[in-house]
Amino acid sequence: xxxGLPTEGTGSxxxxxxxxxxxxxxxxxxxxxxxxxxxxxxxxxxxxxxxxNEEQVVLGLLRREQLAGGKEDEFVKDVMLVxxxxxxxxxxxxxxxxxxxxxxxxxxxxxxSDGRLVGLLRVDDAARAVxxxxxxxxxxx
Length: 141
Known about the structure:
Structural class: alpha+beta
CATH class: Alpha Beta
Shape: globular
Number of strands: 6
Number of helices: 6
Distance between the termini: 26 Å
Mean pLDDT: 87
Helix content: 25-40%
């Protein structure tokens, strides 16, 4: 489960962070300049970018504030959020939604146990998944 691989059993059908996280999130490298990156992220219709190394290990995160703040010629490494909190793919989506709402997080990187990017979990996606889970099981949300 920590590697984000498919699971079996009674709990395997419940939504988890890794199944709801979006794998199409833009990624960038430490040495990219902010100007070109802003355009690429905007064209992809995102407001965040995950900073990764060659092995797709998460090094940092650029949220809306960081993308909008720096100068065109600044490097990603100089404006990124360093060492963002990451979460494992097996964490229940309900737990993730509650945590994200409690800490006012718009998004969270989901990684394998060795730090490789699985995707970016958006709070609105997590909330929708929880609502759908409760609607499917008949529980109150």
